[in-house]
């Protein structure tokens, strides 16, 4: 009987990103249902929540890409520098992403946009807590 292969941190992050994409999909469906049934805002709330959640998902995926560019003990100096680059890229994408969204997307619900973003941020934190 063979032992199952041990999952690496990179494998766990891959699984995490797939789960996050499911959370993004489910959040979008829930926002669409709430908007259609209760709010009747011509999908402005659903669109705004989905865009906020998508922005959060993209920034977290970019951050994960930077962090796991290098692996292994010998790459520890590169990993630390990539951590800083990833964090800076994540923040810049977030700031410019929100600015671009507020400039180009009309009509927009700012509370729904921020709620979608925060729900994804909370789910990111929760999943990372489970990975560790």
UniProtKB/TrEMBL annotation:
Q: How does it sit in the membrane?
A: Multi-pass membrane protein
According to the record, the signal peptide region is none
What is the first-listed, main subcellular location in coarse terms? membrane
Span-the-membrane segments of this chain are: 21-39, 45-70, 91-108
Name the source's superkingdom: Bacteria
Compartments, as annotated in UniProt: Cell membrane
GO CC term (a single one): plasma membrane
Instruction: Give UniProt keywords alphabetically.
Output: Cell membrane, Membrane, Transmembrane, Transmembrane helix
Recorded hits in InterPro entries, A to Z, give:
ATP_synth_I
Protein name per UniProt = ATP synthase protein I
Q: Which organism is it from?
A: Psychrobacter nivimaris
